[in-house]
Amino acid sequence: MLELKNIHGGYGKITILNGVSFSIPKGSITTVIGPNGAGKSTVFKAIFGLLNIHSGQVLLDGKDVTRNTPRQMIGHGVTYVPQGRNVVPQLSVYHNLELGGITATDQAKVRQRIETVMDQFPMLRQFRDRKAIELSGGQQKQLEVARALLLDPKLILIDEPSIGLSPNLVQEVFRTLVRLRDKGVTILMVEQNARSALAISDYGLVLELGQTRMHDEAGKLLADPRVGQLFLGGHVGGDAAEAES
Ligand SMILES: Nc1ncnc2c1ncn2[C@@H]1O[C@H](COP(=O)(O)OP(=O)(O)OP(=O)(O)O)[C@@H](O)[C@H]1O
């Protein structure tokens, strides 16, 4: 569904990505792991039209979408849930959901979608009139994921959904992602909580120094001692580049 071909790019003249290549199939969860500063979030920005791509290609369902704007990417069915808290704290849950459909021309359809999304997340219906700031961290993340569903995306890019959440809430957010995957949504996630994320993923990707170092089934990466080294703050090293598929 999504393919990156030898992406080089960065911020202004600074190059951060030095050859990122991978592809992910429809209806799968892929987790991107790697040391701090490896360029994980930058890969998402490259896909979503927020990065200066120097060379390489981004293909979506075989169509070249390199350098498409975020608006165009949304039009292609891609949504991006950035790192951190992105709800509007003083607005109600319902109003936050409405924001997810703000770019849609058919607002009646958006209201219908809000109902569908609230069916998927009963907690949001229960707290629909509550200010977003009054939700727990995990509930706010669920609200963000729900809002990302408002335009019925086929691909969700989600950056560190577990950050700042207790282990229970992390599992809750991960369960939400698995449910979406089971409905056919494709998910690409960056996660520091690498073991837990790989455990619910189909595929994993190790990024280091702006390059794809490994790309394999999540279970195989979990069992790979080089990846274990990475979890302990090390790096997978040059040999691992050969393991890239
Ligand atoms: N807006 C920006 N302008 C310039 N450089 C940036 C910008 N955003 C990120 N960088 C740089 O790009 C590099 C990669 O950052 P990125 O956020 O992609 O890493 P990451 O792998 O997601 O790291 P982390 O795990 O710490 O979130 C870092 O050296 C960072 O300083």
Automatic annotation (TrEMBL):
It comes from the Bacteria. The keyword RNA-binding does not apply. It comes from Mycoplana dimorpha. GO terms for molecular function: ATP binding; ATP hydrolysis activity; branched-chain amino acid transmembrane transporter activity. Belongs to the ABC transporter superfamily. InterPro entries: AAA+_ATPase, ABC_transporter-like_ATP-bd, BCAA_Transport_ATP-bd_LivF, P-loop_NTPase. One of its GO terms (biological process) is L-amino acid transport. SMART domains: AAA. SUPFAM superfamilies: P-loop containing nucleoside triphosphate hydrolases. Coiled coil: none annotated. It holds the Pfam family ABC_tran. The keyword Transport applies. This is Amino acid/amide ABC transporter ATP-binding protein 2 (HAAT family). Keywords: Amino-acid transport, ATP-binding, Nucleotide-binding, Transport. Residues 2-234 form the ABC transporter domain.
